[in-house]
Amino acid sequence: MYKPILKFLCVIAIVSTPISAPPSMAQEDESDPGEGMRDCIRLRTVRRTEVLNDLNILFHMVGSTVYHNILPRRCSGLAREDRFSYKSSIGQLCRQDMIRVLYNDPFGLSEGNSCRLGAFHKITKEDALALKEGTHQRPRSNPLPMPTPEEVGADDDETSEESRR
Q1: How would you classify residue 153: left for phi > 0, otherwise alpha for psi between -120 and 50, otherwise beta?
Q2: Alpha-carbon dihedral of residues 18, 43, 114, 74, nearest 10 degrees?
Q3: What is the value of pTM for the model shown?
Q4: Distance CA 87, CA 85 (A)
Q5: pLDDT in tens, 19-77
Q6: Domain extents in the chain
Q7: Three-class SS of residue 110?
Q8: Distance CA 162, CA 165 (A)
Q9: Of 31, 92, 116, 122, which one has the fewest beta carbons inside 10 Å?
Q10: Which DSSP symbol is given to 147?
């Protein structure tokens, strides 16, 4: 008599338990003003990507959100080719996923170096613009002024005597 009731209660307990996706599959809230760092971004919301150099990629999302991805290691050829490919079976691009540099060859595009992605950092459009300007500027050299002979302890008389010897 109690077995059917016990089975019914077990079924209710299992059905009423909320099912949550694992953290890597959880949907992100792009409007979250929190820390601004994501492990994954949804591919369907990526509008375009922008390669800044061999270490930095900007992901421009639908709307006005921009994510900055700093690769853990330099990705040789990425800046020169300015394009990459990726594969995803879950509809997301995540930290630790691999991208491949795309090269032009006589037969079309071919995949080259594999590079791992870093975390996605939410940044403002102003920060994105500053990053782009910073990567395109050449470093400026600020030469140091030459010290005078007196400042380095050189004396004309001593140098002339040493040169005679």
Answers
A1: left
A2: -100
A3: 0.61
A4: 7
A5: 333 333 333 444 444 468 999 999 999 999 999 999 999 999 999 899 999 999 999 99
A6: 37-132
A7: strand
A8: 5
A9: 31
A10: P
